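Notes from hallway chat w/ T.B., transcribed later so I don't forget. T.B. wanted the structure written out for a chain they're using in a teaching module, and asked if we could keep both sequence and structure tokens in one place. Agreed to drop them here.
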Amino acid sequence: MMRIQLALNVKDIETAIEFYSKLFGVEVNKRKPGYANFAIDSPPLKLVLNERPDAPERLDHLGVEVFTEDEVSATAERLRASGMISLEEQDTTCCYANSDKVWATEPDGLQWEWYRVKSDSETFGAGPKFGNAQKALAAGNKEACC
């Protein structure tokens, strides 16, 4: 089982939450300052909203949320064999969650994240040091993350 993740940079978190709650007919799954996510069953989607009014792009990254350690490991092995891994992260804190992740960068530079949330966190975390997250860090957003 898995669901696609869409991580968006939004100008105003409250306006975005209101819009996406109505669009998908669901309530916020996790809400923190400048951050929200929706765990949508139909269609299976993890929608992540990061409040970054000055972000150069609205699309931050794409991902696939899986639910077992074996699924993350199998993806890492498959991507490693194909020479596609950009970054592997174990027990990393990002987006108010502790996760295992593997990242791949598509030919035009968009980041794809395969991940499993292990537990919630009270801190946002630092996130990976590449792609749009890296651009946000360079722009002074010290909490840039997925």
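Follow-up for T.B.: The longest strand covers residues 85-94. Might be a good example for the class.
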